[in-house]
Specification:
239 residues, alpha/beta, Rossmann fold, Arc Repressor Mutant, subunit A, 2 domains, 8 helices
Length: 239
Amino acid sequence: MAANKVLLVDDDPGIIEVLKLYFEKEGYQVSTCMQGDKAVAAFNSFAPDIVILDLMLPGMDGNDICREIRKTSDCPIIMLTARTDTLDKIVGLELGADDYIPKPFEPKEVLARVKAVLRRTDKRDAAPAPSEKSEGSADVITYPGFSVDKIRYVVSVDGKEIYMPPKELELLFFLASNPNRVFTREQLLENVWGYDFYGESRTVDVHIKRIREKIENPDREQNWSIKTVWSKGYKFETR
């Protein structure tokens, strides 16, 4: 089995050296880049399984790099940032980052996050073809004009497959599996992200916003939708 490939993008040589050491010790294949304006080319050349991306870089910042990568790839991206501003995190998540880890950090924390993200990705890629699934599988939720398949990691709306990063799909699946039940942000973090998530409740809002943009059509009536329950949280409402 080939080693997972990690692209490290950071302008701090100390961070690059430490993370490279930790990942190579764990058997990962590592490539590094210290200039933002060369990061996209490094990504295309190396074809990594995951990217660890600093936010503040010379030449091109992490958000712009994330935006460029997302034009052609759903490769998982974990952002590293010395900034503590929640808005910076929200912008990155909206552009398609899978997670944020603030600096300073423990290398073991970064390694743990990478392993968790790759486990989800491996599960998605190893999923069986549709013909191998049994009808009525608990991993496939279906409503009129809508389905979410947690085996193949596919969302379908009106017969059209919709691209979703793993965390968006898992959040949608969890809500759709519990129709008309209200969940707080904290409950969603616990059930979807799990105990090892280093984020905050605002992360849920960002993911809900992105999901709505992809699946809800204001131009036609739908018998299902994600509803905000003010001061409480969210629910997948069916009618």
